[in-house]
Amino acid sequence: MTNEVKESFGGAPGPAPAPPPPPAPAALAAKVRTLAPTMTRSMQRVAEAVADDPAGCAALTVTGLAELTGTSEATVVRTARLLGYPGYRDLRLALAGLAAQQQSGRAPAITTDIAVDDPIADVVAKLAYDEQQTLADTAAGLDTVQLTAAVNALAGARRTDVYGVGASGLVAQDLTQKLLRIGLLAHAHSDPHLAVTNAVQLRAGDVAIAVTHSGSTGDVIEPLRVAFEHGATTVAVTGRPDSPVTQYADYVLTTSTARESELRPAAMSSRTGQLLVVDCLFVGVAQRTYEAAAPALAASYEALAHRHRAVRRAP
Q1: In what helix (H) or strand (E) does residue 85 lie, and over which residues does it extend?
Q2: Contacts with 263 (C-beta within 8 Å, 6 or more apart), sequence order
Q3: Extended strands (E) in 44-198
Q4: What was the pLDDT predicted at 24?
Q5: Which pairing describes strands 160-163 and 186-189: parallel, antiparallel, or unpaired?
Q6: What is the pTM of this model?
């Protein structure tokens, strides 16, 4: 979120935060997958080239990579910076590191494109691989500084509202259910009208979380904006770190952007990354509130225990 947006609601900008460190080599491919959909076509060519052949690109000068991708040196530098590196030299070092890692054990060549006539065994293998990749990419690209700040806000919140629609609504419900079981007050809102009318009641000390893979879902952005304007701490869980929802987010937690196919819509893969972020939030909050969370969790297990016992048939 920019200082300009904060100032428009009366908040004085604090000192400029230190720039985040460049992504580790292992996170480079995940970063490309996440950001490529938002890049220009020329920048996409550069990003795809470095992700597909890190060893080859690491040996190229900025001019050489520009020639290889049919772009300009300026485009190469802009792409490097968008991926989180101060300049092309830093990107080359990361590429060399990634190439070394791949030489020590490259992932198996497998495509997640599922055909209508694929045997079910192939479907299982492809989906399992894609789920693993989504989780790995989300973990690699997750900003732990932002995550820690969001956890701290949740642990001390008077109340937490979570907004999401469709598949993201299921993720919102999952988070609130987890928070309720450790004794925290939380609500999930999938109805946009109810979400806004509840957001109006939020204040400083409350937390509002928007779950939206695209980051442009109006029914989720509007209540987050209202919560932000009323002083609540706001968090966005999204696959697009530069999307509209982040304008109203104090903290942004980015999930992986997996490829969509005809038989596997984006909602399926995006939900996998979102659920990982939700679990990270929950475990972090449970750690910080352990003295209260542990007894609450035990009590909730005990309250449901009789429902999970096998019913014996009468002789």
Answers
A1: none
A2: 114, 116
A3: 160-163, 186-189
A4: 58
A5: parallel
A6: 0.68
pLDDT of residue 251: 97
How far is 54 from 253, CA to CA, in rounded Å?
27
Strand pairing of 251-254 and 207-211?
Answer: unpaired
The C-alpha torsion from 170 through 174 and 179 to 185, rounded to 10°, is 30
Q: For 63, how many CA atoms within 13 A lie in the half-sphere containing its CB?
A: 0
* Contact of 209 with 160, CB cutoff 8 Å: yes
**Strand-pair partners of 261:** 264
Tokens 């109340």 belong to residue = 159
The span from the CA of 158 to the CA of 134, in Å, is: 33
C-beta neighbour count of 290 within 10 angstroms: 12
pLDDT digits (tens, 9 = 90+) for 130-148: 888 888 888 888 899 999 9
| Dihedral sign of CA atoms 10, 16, 21, 22 in order | positive
Count of positions (residues) in the chain: 315
User: What strands, in cross-sheet order, belong to the sheet with 186-189?
Assistant: 186-189, 160-163, 207-211, 233-238, 251-254
Mean pLDDT of all residues belonging to the chain: 83
